[in-house]
């Protein structure tokens, strides 16, 4: 008689209900068919430009995947061929990849960075290598032309990392999925929610009257109504007028200058988005409460810190972006460093503890079975599409060696031992710790400023080291993707085939659409309010890091001005003490992880999420039950995203047509 598998580890009660949403299937099917190929082409050609526009306008994504699923489900139903769940899941993955905007967007970001005010102020204008981006005064930049030959080397490097990086990511993530899910049998509590959302339309071709279809339709109607005002109006008027009309401020309503007399040095405002309310009902309640506590703490501390001379860089009249950046230098960057360092240390401790415990359990079972057949911990369900985890590890090693060799050619002055350390030691280690944490409580972990510390300790001077694609990655979170595919009963090789299709296709279409959109108008601009506000903040933060390895002629670099050791130590101690206290009294430790997400950051996007969490907890849970709510809300959110996506597609199509006609030579 076969030996039963060991039980999964006990979870925080807050997470137990997430684990039970779906059971692991016993049968796995291929999901990659010609429908997938047609869906990839459809989504790439029609949805990708909409996703690009939406990311620049609101910072959000386009639910193009759901639009594609609806269209193909209806077409197949009328052709008397219902798509099975596995086909729908792979179609969702492919459509989501094709609607992500592609890898070329980073080149458009680079053209803004190299000529930004932050770069000019620090003296780096014209100092960026040509393998990163053309020079600011070149024709490639002034004419906004991605087809210029000056972009050839940057494009080839992006293509190299797009393909090699994807292979490395897939293989290492797969290895840690096998280790954490098959061997350690961690529950991956949030994988059930993702899988449930992926299969929400699987019944649409079978029984149109199911509750999933009704909830999806309700969400779509809400998305259509709200999206018409939030997205549709600015897109249409932006194509016809010099400045788009906005009834709902994008990307947020900024109240910082209105409240500065009451709350000095405090960024205030709100993102007006109905989707955030729904999101708040899906996220674990105590994680949201942790973020709310961080918001309140930030809101209370900022005026106090300003009064006592800590937040000295803030000046009246500064908006949200400027206030956030200057407060970060004075205090919150150090505080966040201390908090994340504590979380990383706690996570590593838990990982080592659990690995030791697991090893003892395995040895105990083997000793108890004595002469019986030994348990094979790498056993997998038949038909799932697995291959040897050691082969995956070998492929990762080969790809990483190629990346290291390229980086060494780009930055020959940087010690190659540091690159080897990051690639073959740090990345696997932190990926394993993150995979375990995602498997236990759905949260990721990073050790803060490891890369920055290595760059500084190496003694390297210059900006090139920050620009090279040195593989300092954390791939552990992607282990959950394999668990999602497993819960949907999809053969893993379907995912491999889908990736072979989408990698070249997304790169090609991304290049075409980004080139056209950038050529049509400057990015950022009034047409793209999110990029206009956030790209400047991102440029400030990026240059802040670059300053750590610049030769400042004896002056203290801005990066070191933002490092305050007493603040780091205090935040570290506070976080460890809070974690120990919550654990000792068996209170939800998820609050700590939510706290990390919200501390010192802009509260604008958290406000409606908190409202949604409170509505879900104290209204909907009491009416329909907690598990039922967690089944309904992902489907409602998918429908809402689809409705907003349809409005965005109509507006983008109108915008592209107007731009194409206005640029025509007749």
Characterise the protein shown here.
This protein has a two-stranded antiparallel ribbon. The longest helix has 50 residues, at 320-369. It contains 27 helices and 2 strands. The chain has one domain (13-23, 31-361, 388-660). The chain has 666 residues and is mainly alpha-helical. The protein is globular, with a radius of gyration of 25 Å. It has helices at 13-19, 34-46, 48-57, 64-78, 85-98, 105-113, 117-122, 139-142, 152-183, 191-198, 211-240, 256-259, 274-282, 285-307, 320-369, 389-410, 416-441, 450-457, 464-467, 479-487, 492-520, 529-546, 558-561, 565-584, 590-598, 607-624, 626-663, and strands at 253-254, 269-270.
Structural class: mainly alpha
The overall number of domains is 1
Give the strand content. under 5%
Oligomer: single chain
Please count the helical segments: 27
Strand order of the largest sheet: 1-2
Helix-strand sequence: HHHHHHHHHHHEHEHHHHHHHHHHHHHHH
Unreliable segments of 5+ consecutive residues? 1-12, 204-209
Mean pLDDT equals 82
- Rg over CA atoms: 25 Å
The helical percent reads 55-70%
Q: How many strands appear in the DSSP assignment?
A: 2
Distance between the termini: 80 Å
* Biggest sheet descriptor: 2 strands, antiparallel
Task: Give the overall shape.
Answer: globular
């Amino acid at each position: 008689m076969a030996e039963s598998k060991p039980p999964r580890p006990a979870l925080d009660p807050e997470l137990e209900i997430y684990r039970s949403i779906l059971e692991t299937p016993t049968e796995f099917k291929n999901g990659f068919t010609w429908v997938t190929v047609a869906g990839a082409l459809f989504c790439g050609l029609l949805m990708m430009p909409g996703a690009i526009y939406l990311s620049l306008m609101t910072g959000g994504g386009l639910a193009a995947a759901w639009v594609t699923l609806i269209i193909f489900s209806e077409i197949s139903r009328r052709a008397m061929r219902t798509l099975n769940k596995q086909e729908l899941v792979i179609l969702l993955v492919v459509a989501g990849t094709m609607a992500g905007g592609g890898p070329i967007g980073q080149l458009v970001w680079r053209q803004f960075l190299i000529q930004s005010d932050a770069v000019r102020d620090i003296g780096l204008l014209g100092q960026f290598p040509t393998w990163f981006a053309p020079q600011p005064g070149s024709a490639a930049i002034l004419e906004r032309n991605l087809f210029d030959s000056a972009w050839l080397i940057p494009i080839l490097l992006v293509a190299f990392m797009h393909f090699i990086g994807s292979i490395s990511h897939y293989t290492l993530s797969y290895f840690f999925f096998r280790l954490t899910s098959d061997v350690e049998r961690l529950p991956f509590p949030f994988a059930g929610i993702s899988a449930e959302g992926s299969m929400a339309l699987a019944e649409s071709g079978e029984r149109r009257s199911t509750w999933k279809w009704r909830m999806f339709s309700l969400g779509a109607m809400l998305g259509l109504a709200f999206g018409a005002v939030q997205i549709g109006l600015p897109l249409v008027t932006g194509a016809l007028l010099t400045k788009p009309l906005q009834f709902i401020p994008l990307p947020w309503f900024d109240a910082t200058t209105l409240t500065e007399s009451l709350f000095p040095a405090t960024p205030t405002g709100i993102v007006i988005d109905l989707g955030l309310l729904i999101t708040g009902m899906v996220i674990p309640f105590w994680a949201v409460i942790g973020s709310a506590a961080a918001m309140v703490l930030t809101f209370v501390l900022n005026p106090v810190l300003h009064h006592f001379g800590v937040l000295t860089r803030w000046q009246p009249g500064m908006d949200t972006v400027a206030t956030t950046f200057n407060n970060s230098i004075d205090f919150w960057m150090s505080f966040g460093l201390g908090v994340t360092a504590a979380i990383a240390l706690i996570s590593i401790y838990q990982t080592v503890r659990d690995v030791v415990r697991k090893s003892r359990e395995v040895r105990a079972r083997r000793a108890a079975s004595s002469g019986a057949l030994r348990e094979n911990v790498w056993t997998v369900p038949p038909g799932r599409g697995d291959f040897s985890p050691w082969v995956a590890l070998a492929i990762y090693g080969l790809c990483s060696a190629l990346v290291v060799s390229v980086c060494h050619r780009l930055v020959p002055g940087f010690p190659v031992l540091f690159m080897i350390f990051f690639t073959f030691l740090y990345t696997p280690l932190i990926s394993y710790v993150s995979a375990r944490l995602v498997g236990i409580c759905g949260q990721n972990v990073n050790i803060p400023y490891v890369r920055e510390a290595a760059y500084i300790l190496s003694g390297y001077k210059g900006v090139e080291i920050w620009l090279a694609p040195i593989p300092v990655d954390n791939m552990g979170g992607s282990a959950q993707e394999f668990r999602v595919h497993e819960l949907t009963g999809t053969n893993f090789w379907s995912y491999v085939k889908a990736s072979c299709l989408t990698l070249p296709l997304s790169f090609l279409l991304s290049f075409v659409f980004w080139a056209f959109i950038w050529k049509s108008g400057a990015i950022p601009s009034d047409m793209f309010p999110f990029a206009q506000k956030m790209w400047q903040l991102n440029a400030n933060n990026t240059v802040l890091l670059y300053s750590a390895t610049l030769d400042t002629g004896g002056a203290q670099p801005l990066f070191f001005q933002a490092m305050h050791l007493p603040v780091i130590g205090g935040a570290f101690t506070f976080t460890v003490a809070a974690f120990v206290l919550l654990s000792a009294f068996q209170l939800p430790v998820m609050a700590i992880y939510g706290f990390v997400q919200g501390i010192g950051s802009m509260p604008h996007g958290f406000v409606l999420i908190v409202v949604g969490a409170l509505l879900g907890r104290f209204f909907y849970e009491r009416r329909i039950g907690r598990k039922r709510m967690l089944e309904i809300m992902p489907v409602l959110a998918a429908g809402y995203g689809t409705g907003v996506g349809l409005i965005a597609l109509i507006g983008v199509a109108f915008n592209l047509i107007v731009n194409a006609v206005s640029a025509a030579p007749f």
